[in-house]
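job 3f2a | input accepted
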Amino acid sequence: MEIKKVMIAGGGTLGSQIAWQTAFKGFDVVVYDAFENGIAASQKFHHQFAGIFEKSLGATSDEIQLAKDRLNYTTNLEDAVRGTDFISESVPENLEIKSEFYKKLSKVVSDEVIITSNSSTLLPSDFVDSVKKPERFLALHFANMIWTFNVAEVMAHPATSSEAKEQTITFAKAIGMVPIVLKKEQNGYVLNSILGPMLTAALDLVEQGVVDFQEVDRTWMISGNPRGPFMIMDMIGLETMYNVMIHWGEVNKDKQKLANASYLKTNYLDKGRLGIKTKGGFYDYPNPAFKEPGFLK
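job 3f2a | predicted structure (297 res):
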C-alpha cells in the first residue's frame, strides 16, 4: 500500500507539528480535532511554523504555499478518515480519552488504514481492545520541534503485522525522521524513559519546596545543557505533564507523582498557564527569563 493521504488526530502542539512536517514533505494531510477551537489553534500553529521554516530552515515561499495547500481541517471524524491511508493520533495523554477516540475511529475507518499512536508514555497494548484492526496498529512517537529533533520512535505490540511496521518505518523516513525501532514495548520508549525521570525529579524538588524552578534550570544549564527541565516542560505542555503524573501516580499509587500533579493543576493549569502554547507556563513568553543575559549569573 502506498501512503498518500495522512490524517492527524489532535490539533495541539505536537499534532500540528506532525501535520505541518508531513504536508511539507509532500503528503496530503487532514487535521481532525473534536473541537472547533482545536482546529483554530492548529491553523494558528501552522502559520507560525510557516514562518519558522522560511526564516530559519530556508524554505521557499513556493514550498510554504504547497505545504499549506496540502492541509485540510475538519471536526467531522467520518470526513477525516475518507481516503486516508495512515493515521497519527495525538489526542490528550489520557488512557480513557485515547481509548474512546479509538472506539469512535474504529466505527468509520477502513480495514486497510495503518493507525499509529503518538502517546508519550502509554503502550499500544493499552488500546488493542479499542482498535478495529490490532495488526495494523502501533506507536510512532515524535519529539517536540520535530523538524529539528527528528527522532521517530517505532514501537509495535505483539500482534502488529510486520507489513504495518515496515510501512510505518518507511513513512517516518519519507517525512524526514530517523526511525528508532524498539524490539519490545516500553513505557516512555527510549526518549521519555530517559527524559521522564529527570523531569519528575525536577518537579519533586520544586513541589517539596527544596528550590525554585528557575534554580533547577540554572543548575542544569550551567552544567552544560542547553535547556533546563522546566523549559522542556513548557515546550511539552503542562497539560501533558499533568496527565502523565496523574496517570502513573494512580497506577503505581505514587504519592509524590500525585502531589506533583496537584501542584501543576493548582499553580498552572487552573490559571490557564499551559506552557509556550498559551504564552505562559513556568515562564512567560515570548520573552522568558532564561533568555535574559543575567540568567546564568
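job 3f2a | The chain has two domains: 5-181, 193-289.
job 3f2a | closed
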